[in-house]
Specification:
single chain; Arc Repressor Mutant, subunit A; 2 domains; 11 helices; globular
Amino acid sequence: MKKKYYTESSNQYIYTVFYSPQKQKSGCFRNHHHTETELNFIIYGSGEYNLGGKNYTFRAGDLFIVRSNEQHCIPTITSDTLLSLNMYISPYFFWNECADYIPYQKIRALIDADIPILNRRCGEDITSVFTKIAKLYEDGREDLRFALRGEVLNAIRMIADGTDVDESADFLSHLCLEDVQKAMEFIKINYKNPISLEDIAKSAAMSSSYLSATFKKITGMSPYNYLITTRIEKAAELIKKTDKTVMSIALECGFTSLTSFNKAFKKLVGITPMELRQMYK
């Protein structure tokens, strides 16, 4: 079960934790993207991981770092079963919870897929911290939420320590972070509507050009790609969990035609909406 966590004072979404069990398969290329950074820790199982156009052979103890809008999938599982611990980390958590402990340039590298990093990590330290996260998540007690947050922060610090980047870039102001956060919230609330870049910029009290530049630095995606990916994520959930027609889902998620929806869906997911529905019947 996916569990979302929020800050106490402002109720800002910070991350999601869940287990992902899968069975043996071969040649199943169902690519997808996220608006958030995903940390995928392999608890047990083996197979092949496709990430950013590269193929990796994985086993228990491997950690994959998937930045926002970075295409990925597990096409082949060679073991009988696979279990991974997955985490979606929001930009808010990176910039507001981690920024006091991690250099700005390394945070950007863990968000922006255009910055080259080692996407696969392993080692006893990685296994140790993700085992602690798994135990705290399984326990589920509300009074352990701070302990869980501390271990999530430890994991991100550990990953950042092993990330080599150019640390000469200028830092972004806190005000800029807050404004982009407003733009992200505007997209999440209004993705069903026909919104423009100007609408998004207005919500953040920025010019369109300045928003585009800063939005990419903070989220790893352009405002337009963030909007489209949000729409496709919502559409994919409806395709999996409802019997609504593909056309009605397309319109509900902000697309003006079935053609544009199918094209965007195939580009992001790697298969058509109907092919995805067949997989979940």
